[in-house]
Amino acid sequence: MCAESTSNRILNNDSAVVPDRASTWQWPNRGATISRAAVLLCAVMLAPLSGCSSLDCLKGIPSVSVKRIPKSFLGRPRADMVQINMARLRQEPPKVYQLAPNDTLGIYIENVLGKADEAPPVNFPEDASRAPSIGFPIPIREDGTVALPLVAPIEVTGLSLAQATDEIRAAYTTGSKILPEGKDRIIVTLQRPRMERILVIREEGDTSVANLQALTAGTKSAGLSKRGTGTTVDLPAYENDLLHALSRTGGLPGLDAENEVLIIRGGYQDTRQRELLLAQMAACRNPCDCPAPIPDDPNVVRIPIRYYPEQPPTFNTEDIILKSGDIVFVQSRDREQFYTGGAIAGGAQLLPRDYDIDILQAVATSGGSFGSGGTGVGRAGSNSNSSGLNAPIPPSRAIVIRKTCNGQTLAIRVDLRQAITDSNQRLLIQPEDMILVQYTVAEEIGNFALRALQINYLLGSGLRR
């Protein structure tokens, strides 16, 4: 659920969106401050260089301190989620195979299907896990019966092979007297189990080891190219479930896939309606509406792969059993990205699937810096620019622009220096967040002053030469 009322209250509170002026005028070293007159003087000198036509740019982006944001609005940590039990994705097969329509039996009936002086035919299946079958192929019809010579159709649905053998023997001996008792050599085997044809669509990207390592690190290029495969698989009876369908097409959803699998039942007879539904799910980009709203139809089932403990999945065994015409859809999570800009390189970064990253980790992953390895004096003479992170004084302010469910945005301010020791300021990054790293006015002035000293030092050295 989206905290719409909370976001409106924060956005409409004038005192909440006014930047903290005290932190604006304070030198990064908390032990000393600069007078406002000096700051204004330097700001006027810097304004033409920075492109500001007035002092309004000193106010910065209207934002709210992360300390004032309710925790319920910040999102639930992914680390709280648990993995689903894989046994729930498969059906429990019966101890004895039960016959049903579309099974193919191997039947031998001496002097009826086969001659007494000839050996019965033997069929060796291509699947080495199945035993050879004996007899002539006889399919079980749609009504659950088998049609055999000289007798009426025999009902075999729900029977085991042994029970089907007894029914066929009774039809030829007890009822019709076609075969005398004691000479009724009848063999019934399973030649080919019934199959369910399933379409599996997977949008994950490259599954190579290098790409998986890149996904784990959350690098920029990981998983952005979809594989987009569609595979038709034939699943035998009692293996026609979600776990077997996924294992036949590459395994469980990878790190670049959504934390759920969609099962679209074959009830959608109109192929155009299926295509529109898949396009609707793939095109969803609104964080408050995604996953895309599914039509109110029992033929669409969502199976979560990871979930919060207090929200266990409610699907049952029947939901994961697949029938011919069903579609298994694994979505790519390429839209679960965050964006960076400002004093760090701009770009898009893919969020990890199974764990969280906070603001410090996001800045570090993007090549940024939120602290100095020294005092900054040693870098005063380095070849650094005012917009890069190699400045003598690194930037300490981050603005996280987060989308709300009512179409607005909320700017959350984080002090990167304080976040190093204050866990309450380590904002967890959510999909579609925009991170802007900025210098404070004091840091800009400090860098300007240090560079001025550098220029004077270089000019003085040149004059002495």
Count the beta strands.
20
The spatial strand order of the largest sheet comes to: 1-19-18-20-16-17
Range of helix content? 10-25%
Number of domains: 3
Shape: rod-shaped
Calculate Rg over CA atoms: 35 Å
Content of β-strand: 15-25%
Spans with pLDDT under 50 lasting ≥5 residues? Answer: 1-7, 14-38, 220-224, 379-389
The main β sheet shows up as: 6 strands, mixed
Amino-to-carboxy terminus distance: 70 Å
Q: Structural class, judged by helices and strands?
A: alpha+beta
Average of the residue pLDDT scores: 75
How many H/I helices?
12
Write a structural description.
With 465 residues, the chain is of the alpha+beta class. It folds into three domains: 4-77 and 356-464, no CATH class; 80-92 and 195-330, no CATH class; 104-192, wza like fold (2-Layer Sandwich), CATH 3.30.1950. 25% of the residues lie in helices and 19% in strands. It has twelve helices and 20 strands. Strands 1-19-18-20-16-17 form a six-stranded mixed beta sheet. Strands 11-10-15-12-13 form a five-stranded mixed beta sheet, with helices on one face. A three-stranded antiparallel beta sheet has the order 6-3-9, with helices on one face. It is rod-shaped and about 120 Å long.
